[in-house]
Design goal:
Elements (H helix, E strand, L loop, with lengths): L1 E5 L3 H12 L3 E5 L11 E4 L2 E4 L5 E2 L4 H8 L6 E3 L7 E5 L2 E4 L4 H6 L5 H8 L14 H9 L1 H16 L8 H4 L1 H10 L2 H15 L13 E4 L4 H11 L3 E2 L2 E9 L2 E8 L2 E7 L1 E4 L3 H8 L4 H8 L3 E11 L11 E3 L10 E4 H4 L9 E8 L4 H4 L3 H16 L7 E12 L5 H13 L4 E3 L9 H16 L1
Parallel strand pairs: 1-2, 1-14, 2-10, 7-16, 14-20
Antiparallel strand pairs: 3-4, 5-9, 6-9, 7-8, 11-12, 12-13, 15-18, 15-19, 16-17, 17-18
Helix pairs in contact: 1-10, 1-17, 5-6, 8-9, 11-12, 12-16
Bound molecules: flavin-adenine dinucleotide (FAD).
């Protein structure tokens, strides 16, 4: 079986690696000059920065297993334990996010009235049938204020989206399951914990993932480099696929490779590219399918790194902070990168990584680099009291950064799956459909390995 994978981000790379291990003849075509897609680690002036994703949460074993198969599991590094502390900018100042129900009762993260309303979660009614926005779901369960502050911040940290537009079923499927089963999320979580304890006496069963925020010792690129090494010449960079057609029982691809036009044949083709690229390639074959795929919106986002000299300020505490939309500030949040991963800043240097834009402020991503650095410095000064002069800055603008799983996403993806299934030997993977994080991409790519190997 010959398989051509289009796109050399973590999805395509994981798939290629898994298929080769099962004996398939694989070619991976990547348009860019390097592999890794959104994952891009840079090393400059004593800082290790991430242009795209910053970390992953060790919540399920797929990434560890992949790393082990590449001989780099020992290079996974958990965040500093202090990174468990997180902050929210709300009602004019940074406030610590409580880490337990008793701490929540004592904390000032929400005004008293909003905390009392949250207690009413126990009496929430089940949802009406059909998809619902995250905001509507939040208001039903925890009330308006907690939705504006907590629910909005939670999604901002992952989707940089619009809480009124995101689909709760697509972005937080587990909470919808809990509601279906138990009506109240609080009751559901309590019962699930009790069941877990009953099923497995302490100390028994497979070791659980740590749940820690993690990266690799040299940044996330370590994973990309190991996958690239394992694939060798099977992964071709500078190879942009420009056309796709069905021929006989297989596929023909038009490829522009280092300025030359070429044609390639394959039994199976996998599109591991952003949904809008996949839509462009499929449009001449299937207008309806392409239109559905193009309907997946992407939020633009800018990543601004600011580095500071050792001793220029006390190191910031915890993982970082998020800013709910209702505060009307110009940053979405900040990662205290050097406190979270101290090895990413040499000799006591300090690194802040700020996110700007998202679905609610796409205009800000259009600013030039200098304006973005100025904006972030102003916001850090006002929100976190950072007045020191940076010794380093770096700006990355993602015009189409993060796919938005808006209301209707689950139906859209089901229809896309149906459309793709009509084309023998055509497959999709990537972060546009069934999970936007690195881990989701790896899980999905691995399940596609099983499907294809079968
Ligand atoms: C700013 C930012 C922060 C993020 N933070 C996190 C985080 O902290 N943790 C986390 O888990 N996830 C995070 N994510 C999401 C994560 O980066 C993605 O889920 C993941 O990297 C997507 O991988 P992918 O392979 O599906 O797609 P991509 O990385 O987009 O790869 C697609 C590849 O296809 C190539 N391509 C496009 N067109 C063609 C063509 N015609 N022919 C050949 N190749 C083509 C592209 O060049 C690209 O390399 C973040 C994303 C962004 C943008």
């Amino acid at each position: 079986m010959s398989v051509v994978i289009i796109g050399g981000g973590v999805s395509g790379l994981t798939l290629a690696h898994g298929l080769r291990a099962r004996g398939a003849e694989v070619t991976l075509l990547e348009a860019g000059a390097r592999l890794g897609g959104n994952i891009q680690t840079r090393k400059r002036e004593g800082f290790i920065t991430e242009a795209g994703p910053n970390s992953f949460v060790d919540r399920e074993p797929s990434l560890r297993e992949l790393a082990a198969s590449l001989g780099i599991e020992g290079r996974i590094r958990a965040a500093d334990p202090g990174a468990k502390r997180r902050y929210l900018y709300t009602r004019g100042k940074l406030r610590a996010l409580p880490m337990s129900p008793p701490a929540f009762l004592k904390s000032d993260i929400l005004p008293l009235g909003a905390k009392l309303r949250m207690a009413g979660e126990l009496f929430t009614r089940r949802a009406p049938e059909g998809d619902e926005s995250l905001a509507a779901f939040g208001r039903r369960h925890v009330g308006k204020v907690a939705t504006e502050v907590l629910v909005d911040a939670m999604q901002t940290g992952i989707y940089a989206g619009d809480v009124e537009a995101l689909s709760v079923g697509a972005v937080f499927p587990r909470v919808v399951e809990l509601e279906k089963k138990h009506r109240s999320l609080v009751l559901g979580m309590a019962r699930a914990r009790a069941e877990e304890r009953k099923a497995l006496p302490p100390g028994e069963g497979a070791p659980k993932p740590s749940g820690a925020v993690c990266s690799f010792d040299g940044g996330l690129e370590v994973l990309v480099e190991a996958l690239a090494r394992a694939l060798g010449p099977a992964a071709r960079t500078g190879a942009r696929v420009t056309g796709l057609r069905r021929e006989g029982t297989g596929w023909k691809l038009a490829v522009e490779e280092h300025g030359r036009q070429a044609e390639l044949e394959a039994d199976q083709v996998v599109l591991a590219v952003p949904a809008y690229v996949a839509a462009g390639l499929l449009r001449p074959l299937d207008e309806k399918l392409a239109t559905r795929m193009e309907g997946i919106a992407y939020a633009p986002i800018a990543v601004v790194h600011l580095g500071f000299a050792p001793g220029s300020m006390p190191p910031p505490d915890g993982f970082g902070f998020l800013v709910p939309t209702v505060e009307r500030r110009r940053i979405l949040g900040t990662i205290h990168a050097s406190s979270t991963f101290p090895w990413r800043a040499e000799g006591g240097r300090i690194l802040y990584t700020c996110m700007v834009g998202g679905a609610k402020r796409p205009d800000l991503v259009e600013l030039d680099e200098e304006a973005l650095v100025t904006l972030v410095r102003e916001e850090l000064r006002e929100l976190a009291g950072v007045t020191a002069e940076p010794i380093f800055s770096e700006v990355i603008q993602w015009k189409r950064g993060i796919p938005q799983y808006n209301v209707g996403h689950l139906d859209r993806v089901a229809a896309i799956d149906e459309g793709v299934a009509r084309w023998p030997g055509l497959h999709l993977t990537g972060n546009a459909y069934k999970g936007i994080g690195i881990l989701d991409c790896i899980v999905h790519a691995k399940s596609l390995v099983d499907t294809l190997a079968r």
